[in-house]
Design a protein that fits this description.
The protein has helices spanning 6-19, 61-70, 100-107, 127-138, 146-160; strands at 25-31, 33-37, 42-46, 59-60, 75-81, 110-115, 143-145, 168-171, 183-185. By secondary structure, it is of the alpha/beta class. A hairpin with a 4-residue loop joins strand 2 (33-37) and strand 3. The longest helix is centred in the C-terminal third of the chain and has 15 residues, at 146-160.
């Protein structure tokens, strides 16, 4: 979705909840603005129709968490490149020739997130996105877990961030994570 309004986000997540099967994997990527409301102690995405000072069109992390818990995918990975995105933290033989670690990690359902920062603003020019894409392009492994991918660029984001940005990775609590991980598969050329 490009510049979605709050209703567009909800409609798309509703469609995914109906369409995605328990044997499928899902990546949700959000790059945009976010805000932390200290009165409500809650983080929000700010869709295209959001207005400063009015939560009516903000999309809360708790609503996102509910959707992620309700979508019946095998693995869901949230990648969020937005200010205050760290607020989200408060089997089949699919991989021919994969290591035992990859196979075992894939067996268990997962609901993970990697975010561009913790509980602070992040720059508009995304160092997080730059190194995320760079590591995907440079990756030579046939299979790589989201946790291993994240570990490969976390330090680079910290070292190259103008404001001490520290990206985060972890389970999205109370959404059905059982300790597995999302596995990226390298495209064959």
């Amino acid at each position: 979705l490009e510049n979605p309004k709050r209703g567009d986000i909800i409609k798309t997540l509703d469609e995914l909840a109906k369409k995605v099967k328990a044997t499928e994997n899902l990546v949700i990527f959000y790059a945009g603005h976010g805000i932390w409301d200290s009165d409500f102690k809650k983080g929000y995405w700010l869709p295209a129709d959001a207005q400063q000072g009015s939560r009516s069109n903000w999309f809360s992390n708790s609503d996102l968490r509910d959707y992620i818990g309700g979508i019946k995918s095998k693995h869901t990975l949230l990648i969020a490149d937005a200010c205050f995105s760290g607020g989200i933290f408060k089997t089949r033989e699919a991989f021919t020739g994969a290591s035992k670690a990859i196979l075992e990690t894939y067996k268990l359902p997962s609901r993970k997130a990697m975010t561009s920062g913790a509980m602070k603003t992040v720059p508009d020019k995304s160092v997080f996105l730059e190194f995320f894409v760079k590591r995907l392009v440079e990756n030579t492994e046939l299979y790589i877990s989201s946790e291993s991918l994240f570990a490969s660029f976390k330090q680079a984001v910290i070292n190259n961030s103008p404001n001490g940005q520290v990206p985060q990775f972890g389970e999205i609590h109370e959404t059905g994570d059982e300790g597995g991980d999302f596995i990226f598969t390298k495209r064959k050329k």
